Amino acid sequence: MIRTILIADDEPNILISLEFLMKREGFRVLVAHNGQEALDQVANEAPDLILLDVMMPKKTGFDVCQELRAQEAYQHLPIIMLTAKGRDTDIAKGKALGASDYILKPFSTKELVQKVRDIVESST
Amino acid sequence: MLSTSLVIGVAFTYLLILFAIAYSADRAALKGRSWINNPWVYALSMAVYCTAWTYFGSVGRAANSGVWFLPIYLGPTLAMILGWLVIRKMIRIAKTYRITSIADFIASRYGKSQRLASLVTLITLVGIIPYLALQLKAIASGYQMLTTPLNSTVLYPSHWWQDSTFYIALLLVGFTIMFGARHLDSHERHEGMVAAIAFESVIKLIGFIAVGVFVTYYLFNGMSDIFRQAQAIGHLNALFSFNTPANPLAHIQWFSLLLLSLLSMLLLPRQFQVMVVEAVDEKHLKRAVWMFPLYLVLINIFVLPIALAGLITFGVGQGNADLFVLSLPLHSGYEWLALLAFIGGVSAATGMVIVEATAVATMLCNDLIMPWLLKRNGFGLLQCSDLTQIILWIRRGAILILLLLGYVYFKVAGDAYALVSIGLISFAAVAQFAPSFFGGMYWKGGTEKGAWGGLLLGFVMWGYTLMLPSIAKSGWMDTSFINEGPFGIALLKPEQFLGLTGLDNLTHALFWSLWLNIVAYVGMSLWKQPSARETSQALLFVDVFKRKTHSAPVFWQGQAQVQDLMQLMMRFLGQDRSTLLFKQYAQYQGLTLEQLQPNAQLVHFVETQLSGAIGSASARTMVESVVDEEPLELEDVMHILEEASQLRAYSKALEEKSLSLEQATAELRAANEQLKSLDHLKDDFMSSVTHELRTPLTSIRALTELMLDDPDMEWEQREQFMGIILAEAERLGRLVNQVLDMAKIEGGHAEWHTTDVDMKAIIHQAATSMSASYLEKGVSLQLKTPETVAVLRADADRLLQVVLNLLSNALKFVPSQTGQVTVALKDAPEGITIEVLDNGIGIAPEQQALVFEKFRQADNGVQQGTGLGLPISRQIVEHFGGHMWLHSELGQGACFGFFLPRLAHE
């Protein structure tokens, strides 16, 4: 069964890399360029996991995470936060808002793939 | 004539009524409703000053010497009006240090000196006994007058047991004990007694005025009638002439009488008792200041009319002028009025006797008998666990002895002198207290030796110049020493001492006794250093208003046990009262009874409480017996004093310091806030920089890993990735440059190469370098510049950087192919304005303010800048005194502009 991953980031080049990486790993990939697009994609396509950048226009990753967790249907949707901000307070905030994991940019593609796989497989 | 039984019955009933008042007042006080906590009662109780001497004697004096009765009342009036501040201080000192008598006051001031207490008590005793005798005499003669048929000679019984005066004295002993020595109070306050005294003051005023009105308006037709008739008998002139050939120094005598009565108003034991010891509230003094003098005026209005009426009625030199108050109504057949007048007289006499005897008995007990007993361990006193009963019985005994002594004096010397003379002798005795008393209140330099010397010398002079002659004149001594001097030495004649002649006896005695008293007091005080305890007490007294009540004594060091102190207090005040006092004390300190510490304050508290019961000197002795005190050295006190004054100076300096410190703190706080916000800004900046660095790194790392993972990646794919990596690497480089640039400019380390700048040339240069990018995106770039533009002083490279930044920003936000960007230059004498207009997506108003802030790129979906370009541009423009702006509406394109001034000095 092919899993769908939503990638939300406002940096086009990061989107390009992540899209290529996840497709290579055999996932179906959706992209969003900002927080609002991400929420729309979740509503329309029901992804199995979200890679969510924090610093995005319109709505930040924190906003998206918070809104999704507020809805019954997305209580257990795996969300991995990606951020270039490495402060402890940011990580704590992400966890508090219900993110499944938190990955600091720049990341190792192998580690990211491993995390994604672990989460997706454990959720089935 | 009235029947004996009627007079005795009425007088006795009156005394019972008095007692009922006193008893009720005591009961009310126990229930917390004090009758005497009232300025009226306070002022009326002061009128105990007016004794039988006033009541009967003033008339006698007026009849004999006219206006000479007046100074006795003007003195106290002056004392009240001029000296109320002194009285207030007396009250404050007495209340603060639990002082209950004049002897205690003086002794306490001079280091709680036992010998001073005893000396003062002795002087009081000697001085007061004639005065008590006088009251007995007044009542006795009044009684005789009422119960003996008119015009018959009064026969005094030959044996004392037949003498009604003896029984009157005993009766007074009984009442005085009931009023003043029923129970023991550590404050030595007698609510009931004061209430009764105030009542008596009313009765004596009513009695005297009743007789005055009767005589003036019933027997005569008003005052003018009396004066006219007096004129007719030719005696009036003699009464109203002031300086007569017989008495050329009358004004001096007037002055000495005034001084004497002024001093006695403050220093007589009974005045001290009602005015100071019994005072409930210092504030009552303000009412008394005018009420008491008013009372004196009222009771004196009819003195002259009654005296003159007596002289007119009975003839000059006929009848006892001292008893005109009684004999006038009796003579007219108004026996009931005479009886009322007699009751008024009884009021005056009993009031004086009760208060005086109580006060003096307290002194005798506390300052003479108790110390003596404690010293010799009489009655096994030191082993006794409850001394309250013993103290009470000593006081009762003292009252009995006092009145018996008064009676004896009355029997022995009573007939020798007129009433007024006896009173003045007493006044002169207590006047001896004045130097050490007032000196002690206001002069810290007064010492115990000075007080002792002054009092002793004054007292001796008083005895020699006033008392001895009066005894001699009574026929009990050979009078030759008066007339020729002792052993024939004329210089030592008691009434012309050292050849001082021309003064009346009283003024003469007062002059010598007070003068030598003062000289000795001041001289000896200055001669010898005071002891430590004296210095400390002097400070407590003189600076009483500067000290807080209940505050601990500064001058005490030693060790004590709470239990010992409590037991000591129980012995003198009884168990219940002591426990209560200790509890109250503990409560006041915010502690429980068990938590009490045997510190200086507690020792001071116990000593103060004991002072009330047994006098300060005895209290000192007793406390010393249970407290292991370290001797107080003068150096200690001086040291403490010095420290205190240093501390005061220090604390003042500290106050000033702390004020400036406070300011500094406020400034520091503000600076700190600023630093904190700067720190916060720096944090934000670092966080933003980190974010901006990590973002390109993320792409670079991810894409590189992807390519490494897949050596067989298609070339096109690989090329795209490498293009991205290159772009991101360039972005990183740009970012690093701009961050450094920003840091330099903000930190003031940037290098500025100021030259003449041709702005038109710079715009063309920028357009040329951007033309390739514009061409690539299909965006048109238009330049609108005047033909010639005057140069301005600035850094050409920096300005080029600004224009390039604006052009590249515009390019980012305009659509490809249809995009249009216009650069307009306007030259004016004051400066140059450059605007870059685009037809891009524009910037929402709420974001416009943010674009010039670091890393705050407009939220417009086109994210390629470092977020530092515009902030840096603005810094550059502002460096050259210009400013930068943005006009835009969402969807309507944007217009960034800046103005550079031609600065006058450049």
Report on the structure:
Helix content of chain A is 46%, strand content 19%. Chain A is of the alpha/beta class and 124 residues long. The N and C termini of chain B lie far apart (127 Å). The mean pLDDT of chain B is 81. Chain B contains 33 helices and 9 strands. In chain B, a hairpin with a 2-residue loop joins strand 6 and strand 7 (831-838). The longest helix of chain B has 76 residues, at 634-709. At the A-B interface, helix 1 of A face helix 28 and helix 29 of B.
Give the DSSP E fraction of chain B (strand runs of 2 or more residues): 5-15%
Shape call of chain A = globular
Please tally the β strands of chain B and state the result.
9
* Derived structural class of chain B: mainly alpha
Q: What composes the largest sheet of chain B?
A: 5 strands, mixed
Number of continuous helical runs of chain A:
5
| Fraction of helical residues of chain B | 55-70%
SS summary, helix count of chain B: 33
Overall outline of chain B: elongated
Q: Tell me the helix content of chain A.
A: 40-55%
Order of helices and strands of chain A: EHEHEHEHEH
- Tell me about the biggest sheet of chain A? 5 strands, parallel
Distance between the termini of chain B: 127 Å
| Multimeric status of the protein | heterodimer
Distance between the termini of chain A: 11 Å
From the structure above, extract its key features.
heterodimer, A: 5-stranded parallel β-sheet, globular, B: 906 residues, 68% helix, elongated
Could you provide a short overview of the structure?
Chain A has 124 residues and is of the alpha/beta class. Chain A contains five helices and five strands; from the N terminus they run βαβαβαβαβα.
Question: Secondary-structure map with pairings?
Answer:
The complex is a heterodimer of chains A (124) and B (906).
Chain A: E1 4-8, H1 12-24, E2 28-32, H2 35-45, E3 49-53, H3 61-70, E4 79-83, H4 88-96, E5 101-104, H5 109-122
Parallel strand pairs in A: 1-2, 1-3, 3-4, 4-5
Helix pairs in contact in A: 2-3
Chain B: H1 4-30, H2 39-46, H3 52-65, H4 71-96, H5 102-109, H6 114-147, H7 164-180, H8 191-219, H9 223-232, H10 236-240, H11 250-267, H12 269-277, H13 284-300, H14 303-314, H15 324-331, H16 335-376, H17 388-413, H18 419-431, H19 434-442, H20 448-476, H21 480-484, H22 505-527, H23 532-542, E1 558-559, H24 562-573, H25 575-589, H26 600-614, H27 616-626, E2 628-629, H28 634-709, H29 715-747, E3 754-757, H30 759-777, E4 780-784, E5 792-795, H31 796-813, E6 820-828, E7 831-838, H32 845-848, H33 869-879, E8 883-888, E9 894-901
Parallel strand pairs in B: 4-6
Antiparallel strand pairs in B: 1-2, 3-5, 6-7, 7-9, 8-9
